[in-house]
């Protein structure tokens, strides 16, 4: 289980990785959907997307389930962040012009219900925009695989989503997920960007239980945890340049529009 009291470590590590997709996602919104109005940033985390959207002139409603993350976002945004999580957001039906979820849908126990929750709060003619990581290895996979192999750690089972609830983590699969929620004019794209992170906060995110590697670390005996840390320090010392790790990252983006007018299509399952 993630200990979000380590929110500061997340903000200094994984949030940097996720942050590279913020501008591409907002660009996709402004090319394909509304170009102003009210945007709900669902799962705002430390407020990166919310702050970027506000800088572009959007009126932003930031929503986040975890108290420690809300505090970070409130410090960044200078105002209150609502408590709430998908699929039951604390917003009325058709309340916003855009509902955006950056790297949220891929972590939900029921992604389809989550996207329906996003679609519910969007006005007819408005849009749902999401980003996820693609299936398969990601930018940090080689590092974590080395740490596990070098330390003799055993990865626990049951860390992946039930296949009956999962979806294909590709452009086509993400587009289909939005269409299943009743959204139309769906556009999917791939964003490529470089990310940088310092080794120490990245390791603190492991100790906070973030990601598969964090869950793995927490389920090891103390001697194996120590061996994982040793392997991590040795490998990051080899990989770091000027004390910083640099990784290429790939994210999948998609946007879909809720049908407009008096005869707007109902949200399936809502």
From TrEMBL:
Q: Which domain of life does the UniProt lineage start with? A: Bacteria
Where would I find the Methyltransferase type domain in this sequence? Answer: 41-129
Cite the InterPro entries for this sequence. Answer: Methyltransf_11, SAM-dependent_MTases_sf
Which Gene3D superfamilies does the protein's record reference? Vaccinia Virus protein VP39
Can you name this protein? Methyltransferase type 11 domain-containing protein
Q: What is the species listed in this Swiss-Prot or TrEMBL entry?
A: Amnibacterium soli
């Amino acid at each position: 289980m993630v200990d979000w009291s380590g929110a500061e470590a997340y903000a200094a590590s994984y949030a940097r990785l996720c942050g590279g997709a913020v501008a591409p996602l907002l660009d996709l919104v402004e090319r394909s959907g509304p170009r102003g109005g009210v945007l709900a940033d669902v799962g705002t985390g430390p407020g990166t997307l919310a702050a970027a959207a506000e800088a572009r002139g959007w009126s932003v409603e930031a929503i986040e389930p975890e108290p420690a993350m809300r505090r970070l976002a409130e410090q960044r945004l200078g105002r209150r962040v609502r408590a709430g999580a998908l699929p039951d957001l604390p917003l009325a039906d058709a309340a916003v012009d855009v509902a955006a979820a950056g790297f949220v849908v891929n972590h939900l126990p029921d992604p389809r219900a989550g996207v329906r929750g996003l679609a519910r709060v969007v006005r007819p003619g408005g849009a749902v925009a999401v980003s996820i990581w693609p299936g398969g290895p990601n930018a940090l996979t080689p590092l974590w695989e080395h740490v596990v192999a070098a330390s003799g750690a055993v990865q626990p089972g049951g860390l992946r989503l039930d296949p009956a609830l999962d979806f294909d983590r590709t452009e086509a699969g993400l587009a289909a997920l939005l269409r299943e929620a009743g959204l139309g004019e769906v556009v999917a794209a791939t964003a490529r960007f470089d990310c940088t992170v310092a080794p120490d906060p990245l390791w603190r995110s492991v100790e906070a239980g973030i990601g598969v590697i964090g869950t793995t670390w927490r389920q090891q005996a103390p001697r194996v945890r120590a061996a994982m840390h040793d392997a991590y320090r040795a490998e990051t010392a080899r990989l770091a340049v000027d004390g910083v790790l640099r990784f290429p990252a790939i994210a999948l983006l998609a946007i879909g529009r809720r049908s407009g007018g008096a005869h707007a299509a109902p949200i399936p399952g809502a």
